[in-house]
Amino acid sequence: MGTYIDRPTGVFPSVCSLDCPDQCGLLVHKRDGKIVKIEGDPAHPVTQGAICNKVRNMAERIYDPARLRYPLKRVGRKGEGRFERISWEEALQTISSRWKTLIAKEGAEAILPYSFYGNMGRISAEGMDRRFFHRLGASRLQYTICEAAGKEGYRYTMGGSYGTDPEDTVHAKLIIMWGINAVSTNMHQVMLAEKARKNGATIVVIDVHKNRTGRWADWFIPVMPGTDAALALGMMHILFEEQMTDKAFLRTYTVGHEELREHVRQYDPATVSAITGVPESDIYRLARMYGRTSPSFIRIGNGPQHHDNGGMFVRTISCLPALTGQWLHKGGGAIKGNGAYLEHNAIALQRPDLLKQATRRINMNMLGNALLELDPPIRSLYVYNSNPALVAPNAAKVRQGLGREDLFTVVHDLFLTETASYADIVLPATSSFENTDFYRSYWHHYVQLQQPVIEPYGESKSNADVFRLLAKAMGFEDDVFEDTEEQMIRQALDHPNNPRLRGITYEALTEKQYMKADVQPLFPGKLPTPSGKIELYSLAMEHDGYPPLPVYTPLAEDGELPFLFVPGPNHHFLNSTFSNNEKHVRMEKAPRLYMNAADAAALGIADGDKVKVWNERGQCTFVAAVGDDVLPGVVVSQGLWADSADSGALVNALTPDRLADMGGGAVFFSGRVQVERLSAVADRSVSR
Ligand SMILES: Nc1nc2c(c(=O)[nH]1)N[C@H]1C(S)=C(S)[C@@H](COP(=O)(O)OP(=O)(O)OC[C@H]3O[C@@H](n4cnc5c(=O)[nH]c(N)nc54)[C@H](O)[C@@H]3O)O[C@H]1N2
Ligand SMILES: Nc1nc2c(c(=O)[nH]1)N[C@H]1C(S)=C(S)[C@@H](COP(=O)(O)OP(=O)(O)OC[C@H]3O[C@@H](n4cnc5c(=O)[nH]c(N)nc54)[C@H](O)[C@@H]3O)O[C@H]1N2
Ligand code: SF4
Ligand SMILES: [Mo]
């Protein structure tokens, strides 16, 4: 048989490695050893052959002339981007000798690894790397940039990331997309919802921006940013008042429904309307629709939890399905994330036992602070699977930190990213198609295998290989660094604590490519909450210093500027990935600022004008998109644009780096800004 690499021409099964809930099954077409086409695998039960435009054009990224082929050392100033080719030997020698000296003088905690899920493969993202940094005794990163607040909020209510099986949502009769731009960010949930719609389902979208998803809805409900918890509490008020709750379900499977009923009396529709900007009549209509339709399904998005009150938002919304007993109806319930069903053996994979004594933890959302203010200081930063110079909040601070002359920085990536331009040493990374790894979705219930399809590009190496080499260079003799990818996959999937993975083995995956975990309905059953039930009233929250019942808390103070600024992701990039690929940038045209016509008129701004957006943290420029896609007082942008696009839209220059109410989460969407007209610009074509 041989491996896929040995066969220069053919079609090979694969999986999308990007940080996207859909985790599509792919078919990679190869001719003469090169990828010529990437399409969806029609046999994949969830993704069914459909993939996004981003990945359909992935080959252009894999073979982009700007892709890194060999290690580099910096010869220019930090951030300038001038580098010189070096050998792997020199790169590893430089890193290990700098680190050995540093550790002898200041200890290994002076070293900070910084990473995220640029590649979702578990070995690439949280496998050999963790072993290495545990053994090194480095400072530990808190992985909070994405969904930390919401995950915590959901856990308080439901005990962990357990939701509806998305494949069942075709049976739903009401689907609420709550703060999720699913057409762009979870397209297969949209495909499933379309099937439900053909069977009579209504689709409601609740968002601060009428984007692709809002336009696709049967009913779009605009809300003021950060106020959704109040809307959900208003719905609960009506559900109780109008006897639309499922009393048997509440008695059997929840704790605190009586306290909750009393508590939500204060959230009457008039009060809620004043907070959320949603008319009273719409609050009634939504609550009655929710109270009278079964099965109803809520897809809880990531957007609203990127606010100061994001944890409590998810905590609150996740109580709704219990009120009407939706968890007993096939396709009913909610999804925030489904990662807990597929939990693998992280202890075997990551080997926390290699860490001899606990080291400090550093929140990745405060990277600027960590680099500029920590005592004892961070002296060395090792970045992989992430591009913090673009994606981390308060970019000016982050870049000031990255610019420190005494900070020894190593960046491992496929491209010379904005972050890499600050590195002392840059290492070239393989793409996921060049590696062996396993993948588990945080939305559907499948585990998938990646086997290498193409040879490593130039001298590039996988994350696992680099950490093996670094371990050797550091003189670590532990045999955990000898494990192959295949062995690591076996160790990770051997997890007696999670019987749902039973039967999913390395062998079976090599044969089947994707396998569904054995997930049973949540109810009847016991949740891993302290009470075993859905916690509408949570003693654990009280213990942790939160109100035990869901509440609405206004956003934190963020100065006096008039607009709330919501800079989310866009359709053709994946966070900052693809923002440096010409084709993807062309598809996005230019960074736009969506604003309400009334606000624009007051500021003398016309559709298509160039505008400056600023606050005390920084400034950006956009093309104004004037209309009624956002409420007055709100401005929205989309996309994490590359410096190289010269767009002037480094949106994180404006975002706050304070932390959300739970989990140390990021608050990208709770910043205030001012908008100013720069010039009337000819290019009206890009404003829509
Ligand atoms: N095309 C594409 N797909 C992606 C990504 C990408 O960059 N591009 N990123 C991936 C990643 S890492 C993630 S985490 C997910 C994120 O994908 P989503 O879960 O869709 O999250 P966001 O796009 O951040 O925000 C979702 C929506 O929340 C809205 N929103 C913001 N604040 C509020 C609020 O207070 N209330 C309400 N109701 N809505 C609000 C925004 O307008 C946006 O439409 O997508 C993944 N998929
Ligand atoms: N303003 C604003 N900021 C945001 C967000 C937002 O909505 N608004 N969203 C936030 C969210 S939800 C997230 S998840 C973060 C995501 O932020 P990041 O995790 O930084 O994601 P990307 O920007 O996609 O960068 C991933 C990098 O990993 C590299 N990479 C890919 N595969 C590999 C590999 O195998 N090895 C190595 N070494 N490198 C690899 C890619 O080339 C890319 O440069 O951004 C956050 N930032
Ligand atoms: S980015 Fe998402 S939708 Fe696109 S191919 Fe990957 S998993 Fe599928
Ligand atoms: Mo994310």
Give me a quick take on this structure.
The chain has 26 helices and 27 strands. It is α/β, with parallel strands linked by helices. Strands 5-4-17-16-15-6 form a six-stranded mixed β-sheet, with helices on one face.
Overall number of domains: 4
Number of discrete helical segments = 26
- Beta-strand content bin: 15-25%
**Fraction of helical residues:** 25-40%
What's the CATH architecture of the largest domain?
3-Layer(aba) Sandwich
Which strand order spans the largest sheet, edge to edge or round the barrel?
Answer: 5-4-17-16-15-6
Strand-pairing-aware structural class? alpha/beta
Biggest sheet features: 6 strands, mixed
Give the overall silhouette.
globular
Integer average pLDDT: 97
Spatial extent as radius of gyration: 25 Å
Topology-level CATH name of the largest domain: Rossmann fold
Low-confidence stretches: none
Q: How would you describe what is shown here?
A:
The chain is α/β, with parallel strands linked by helices. It folds into 4 domains: 10-62, Phosphorylase Kinase, domain 1; 72-145 and 350-448 and 455-516, 3-Layer(aba) Sandwich (Rossmann fold); 164-336 and 530-543, Dimethylsulfoxide Reductase, domain 2, CATH 3.40.228.10; 563-687, Barwin-like endoglucanases (Beta Barrel). It contains 26 helices and 27 strands. The protein has a 6-stranded mixed sheet, with helices on one face. The chain has a 6-stranded mixed barrel with strand order 22-26-23-25-24-27. It is globular, with a radius of gyration of 25 Å. The termini are far apart. The mean pLDDT is 97. It binds ligand MGD (2 copies), iron/sulfur cluster and molybdenum atom. Molybdenum atom (MO) is lined by residues 19, 146.
